[in-house]
Amino acid sequence: MYQLEYLDIEENKEYIKTIEKVVKRCFEEEKLQNTKLYISITLTNPENIRKINKKYRNIDKETDVLSFPMFEKDELQEKIKNNDFVCEDVLGDIVISIERVENQAKEYGHSFERELAYMIVHGFYHLMGYDHIEEKDKVIMRPKEENILNQLEIYR
User: Fold this and answer.
1) DSSP states of 1-62
2) Whose CA is closest to 39, among 82, 103, 94?
3) Phi, psi (5° rounding) for residue 3?
4) What is the pLDDT along the chain (156 residues), one digit of tens a residue?
5) Burial code of 69-97, b = ≥16 C-beta within 10 A, e = fewer?
6) Using CA atoms in the order 144, 146, 150, 151, what is the torsion angle rounded to 10 degrees?
7) What Å distances lie between residue 102 and 55, 73, 78, 85, 109, CA to CA?
């Protein structure tokens, strides 16, 4: 379901526990558990996420999470509907700045687990083709994110 890489940060078993349960729930919710899809997740630091953001999005600034989907939304929905996955295929890449997760958890007054879980869910739904830039899209994406977190009992 996922492949995890650490880029210039130390491995952490707590991260793995959170990632596993969140990805599993996301896949179940979107009925992807019987597909050959997986997510590539990279946990890194602010410097690396800034470089990645600059290289791939031409935005020279640090951020908390980046998502790089491999499919257009319509194409993905068609593939899921027809179970059209012959071999293992990456749904997309999610890159998360662990330092930003720590800082935002403190800033928002909730746990590190909650913030990391949110980053995973948020990235996942971007990979699924959802967005939040316009209000009409946000009202679809945000409830999906909250639904996953509530099912896992990961609250603010």
Assistant:
1) -EEEEESSS---HHHHHHHHHHHHHHHHHTT-TTSSEEEEEEEE-HHHHHHHHHHHH---S-
2) 94
3) -125, 130
4) 999 999 999 999 999 999 999 999 999 999 999 888 999 999 999 999 999 999 999 999 999 999 999 999 999 999 888 888 777 889 999 999 999 999 999 999 999 999 999 999 999 999 999 998 888 889 999 999 999 999 999 998
5) bebeeeebeeebeeeeeeeeebbbbbbbb
6) 20
7) 24, 31, 37, 36, 11
Q: If we measure between CA atoms, which residue out of 4, 6, 3 comes closest to residue 48?
A: 6
Q: Could you give the domains of the chain? A: 2-151 (3.40.390.30)
